[in-house]
């Protein structure tokens, strides 16, 4: 039995505790400084509001002010499950309480810009921890198709853990793998994290397929006949994901695996980014859709487009990645979604 600490009490962090619990580990979930009321709610109801299942055994939920005390224990794995905007905060807070080179697994998906270059979150956390006095780090990244509710209900789920040292990824996978949580390993940290991030942008495009399938058809006809369009958008998404990932020195085969196609499928079929895409496909602007339809929902693909969209437009010819460019323009410039089909490969 090992002690596992999960930072972030959201759906994914909590869902990750289920396979950990089934391996008889002792799990502590520490909420962020913004989740104190949420922790009280979970502890009072004995359920997570977003997950359709009872809380697992061997799991305790604590407020952020308990982090230092918990870190005094022998921790075998730290799991970071905050939103992408919270990675800076998580790195700073962990650097205050880490006393040794404890392995870290990042569930958070995103990309950042540092000194004019793209930076995956594992590298960003590594940089921030070292800047705050942690001399040695050991950071792995998780990718692949994993919806939190599915994992919490213990459906068969396949993911990939990436570390430049494949043996480290293997060790963590053995720590948490179960008969339903299947962990594959990779040394392509950049590829896995890049796919995990940019698939959210393409999920919005695929989610718009019903609105995009015909310029004048009725809503009923569109709802019955959009799959041809969705397939076209999926094919172009995969093509552009390969171009983008290889540009960042990730591997093509990573795009064609769980972290790429697998994650894209799950997100496009039932995720928040796909839902935003549906509204964009109906002709709504991003701000309008966010305000009226998804006011309290984090849309990762939109956040990513706002964060790195300008650099992408500087680095890529829009004819090379026309679908990605269309979504970025729609989000960043508040213009109607327009797909340049003529540039599709």
Report a brief summary of the structure.
The protein is 51% helix and 13% strand.
- Class by helix and strand content? alpha/beta
Helix content: 40-55%
Order of helices and strands: EHEHEHEHEEEHEHEHEHHHHHHHHHH
The CA-CA distance between the termini, in Å, is: 51 Å
Discrete helix count = 17
Shape designation: globular
- In quaternary terms, these chains amount to single chain
Describe it for me?
- This protein is α/β, with parallel strands linked by helices and 345 residues long.
- Helices cover 51% and strands 13% of the residues.
- It contains 17 helices and 10 strands.
- The strands form 2 sheets. Strands 3-2-1-4-5-8-9-10 form an 8-stranded mixed β-sheet, with helices on both faces.
Fold topology:
Layout: E1 3-7, H1 11-22, E2 26-30, H2 36-45, E3 59-62, H3 67-70, E4 77-80, H4 87-97, E5 104-106, E6 111-114, E7 117-120, H5 121-131, E8 139-143, H6 148-152, E9 157-162, H7 166-176, E10 181-186, H8 189-207, H9 209-212, H10 219-225, H11 227-247, H12 252-255, H13 258-270, H14 272-281, H15 286-292, H16 300-315, H17 322-333
Helix pairs in contact: 4-5, 8-11, 8-13, 8-14, 8-16, 8-17, 13-14, 16-17
Can you tag this structure with a few keywords?
two-stranded antiparallel sheet; 345 residues; alpha/beta; 8-stranded mixed sheet; 51% helix; 10 strands; globular
